Amino acid sequence: MFATLSDRLATTFKNIRGKGRLTDADIDATAREIRIALLEADVALPVVREFVSRIKERARGEEVSQALNPAQQIVKIVNEELVTILGGETRRLRYAKNGPTVIMLAGLQGAGKTTLAAKLALWLKEQGKAPMLVAADLQRPNAVNQLQVNGERVNVPVFAPEPGNGVGNPVEVARDAIEEAKRKLHDVVIVDTAGRLGIDEELMKQAADIKAAVNPDEVLFVVDAMIGQDAVKTAQAFLDGVGYDGVVLTKLDGDARGGAALSIVQITGKPVMFASNGEKMTDFDLFHPDRMAGRILD
Ligand code: GDP
């Protein structure tokens, strides 16, 4: 991810490197190239506009004109502004003060939700927590089984409806799971909900019903960073239909252009909290805007 963007930005900065003073024409040319680089990386247009205008404004100011090395100062500004559009500070999970912390996952099918649920459970275990996974995705016959397989991989119990009891009601499953977690002293409950291939009303309503029933401490929207501009559209639809507190970007190891990662915080106003970047259960961590910006400008 970001390979093309990184290359393009590196070339842009090379063009001004070594100049003792930057003219307005230099700044305009640099801003134009940054704009093209971001658009090519699939960053949403309003985000590009705002970003480039901030860069231009700062590049024309004293911090650049009085810098010993103006080009380096521009790189520093771009870095700072990248950190800002990626959300600034790392946003950490909020745990419930009493009783189990409930984390609900929502997103489209194929986003990597089931995999993410297990990765998050493993990560929580490493933080000293005792998580439990809940299979409230009763839409796809295989979804419960898939979560059970992933749960086994990280050795975390999975609460699922009894087989043979029909399709079951995901709201009830989620409610029962929280009671079970209390009985068994699990301090974090991760509720996996149904995903569809596309956004539809029934999916949104079901997720909203689960949310209303279990009152989660954190609702996380899980989205595949490889789907580019569609990630932003889906994020907006889930924000309107279900609402959430934070975003999890998956498949950051892919070779997509990275625009989703750079647009989603600004468009939704919600922080990216976690990043999933591979098929292994340990390919997962908190999302750090500064490290991501650093990688782009590496
Ligand atoms: P769900 O339908 O949202 O539950 O998606 P799954 O968890 O089943 O994931 C869909 C596919 O994406 C699976 O083949 C996963 O192995 C794969 N996958 C999930 N997360 C990642 C990731 O971070 N990187 C890569 N490369 N593949 C992932």
TrEMBL record:
Keyword Ion transport among UniProt keywords: no
Keyword Mitochondrion: no
Sequence ranges assigned to domain SRP54-type proteins GTP-binding in this UniProt record: 271-284
Keyword vocabulary terms for this entry: Cytoplasm, GTP-binding, Hydrolase, Nucleotide-binding, Ribonucleoprotein, RNA-binding, Signal recognition particle
Enzyme Commission code(s) on record: 3.6.5.4
Enzyme class of the recorded protein, top EC level: hydrolase
Location in the cell: Cytoplasm
Reaction catalysed by this enzyme: GTP + H2O = GDP + phosphate + H(+)
Assembly and interaction partners: Part of the signal recognition particle protein translocation system, which is composed of SRP and FtsY.
Domain notes: Composed of three domains: the N-terminal N domain, which is responsible for interactions with the ribosome, the central G domain, which binds GTP, and the C-terminal M domain, which binds the RNA and the signal sequence of the RNC.
Family recorded in the similarity comment: Belongs to the GTP-binding SRP family. SRP54 subfamily.
Record function comment: Involved in targeting and insertion of nascent membrane proteins into the cytoplasmic membrane. Binds to the hydrophobic signal sequence of the ribosome-nascent chain (RNC) as it emerges from the ribosomes. The SRP-RNC complex is then targeted to the cytoplasmic membrane where it interacts with the SRP receptor FtsY.
The protein, known as: Signal recognition particle protein
Species of origin: Nocardioides luteus
Record lineage: Bacteria, Bacillati, Actinomycetota, Actinomycetes, Propionibacteriales
GN (gene name): ffh
